[in-house]
Amino acid sequence: MKKNLACTSLMFCLSLMLSAQQLDPKKVNTSGQKDIKQGQLKTLPPPPAKVSFSAIIAEQRSALPSYEDKNTIARFTQVQWNEGNGFDAANGVFTAPAQGVYCFIGNFSIAKYGCVGNQVTFSVTLIKNTTQILEKFNLPVAAGSIDTWTTENIMLMVQLNANDKISLRPDAVVCTGGELPMLHRVIFSGYKVN
User: Fold this and answer.
1) Which of 21-35, 63-77, 152-166, 169-183 is predicted least confidently?
2) How far apart, in whole angstroms, are the C-alpha atoms of residue 121 and residue 108?
3) Residues 33, 125: Cα–Cα separation, whole Å
4) What span, in angstroms and rounded, lies between the C-alpha atoms of 155 and 149?
5) Which pLDDT band, with edges at 50, 70 and 90, does 16 fall under?
6) Comparing 20-24, 155-159, 166-170, 181-185, which segment has the lowest mean pLDDT?
7) One CATH from 2.60.120.40, 3.30.870.10, 3.30.540.10, 3.60.130.10 for 52-192
8) Global pTM?
9) What distances in angstroms separate CA 26 from CA 11, 83, 185, one per listed residue?
10) Given phi > 0 = left and psi -120 to 50 = alpha, else beta, which region is 56?
11) Can you tell me the distance from the alpha carbon of 84 to that of 96, in angstroms, rounded to the nearest whole number?
């Protein structure tokens, strides 16, 4: 009886060992979900190690929102770097490749206005996902010759999820005399803090 029990136990142990050696790790369900079939589990590519960009609009252009640019600052003429490929220079839109805290910096050279007796304003709004206003920056515009410039900076840190989009929306007032507010140069940069 003891021999039969020992023999049965030994056979059972041997069959377990052989089964374990024949397991295909690709077919083992380790997701915690029931009835997962081979090929249903997909692995996501790792997020980029570094995420940062810096782009420039080098030529003079109107500071008024443009319908063709979807009322955002777009058509950047130079991309200095774009680690993580999050920035689209044509649309002026940054898409977060991974969740985290991001810092955005804008530098705007704005033409001084030759308006007399008018309150002239220029602002830039940081927009998330085309509709959510994160922050509106009112930038002072000095009076003077339209051939001279004043430079202002903005900075904002924000928590983003993967695939959240960030863009800049300008807002300016046209002088009564018809003089158009102009941007001389724009630099838009950002990076993932953590």
Assistant:
1) 21-35
2) 14
3) 44
4) 20
5) very low
6) 20-24
7) 2.60.120.40
8) 0.71
9) 27, 34, 55
10) beta
11) 9
Domain boundaries, the chain: 52-192
Q: How confident is the model at residue 68 (pLDDT cuts 50, 70, 90)?
A: confident
Within 10 angstroms of residue 147's Cβ, the number of other Cβ atoms is 9
Written as one letter, the residue type at 78 is Q
Side-by-side strand order, sheet with 122-128: 87-88, 93-95, 165-172, 122-128, 132-139
Residue 83 has pLDDT above 50, yes or no: yes
Tokens of 133: 């206003």
DSSP string, 73-95: ----SEEEEEETS-EETTTTEEE
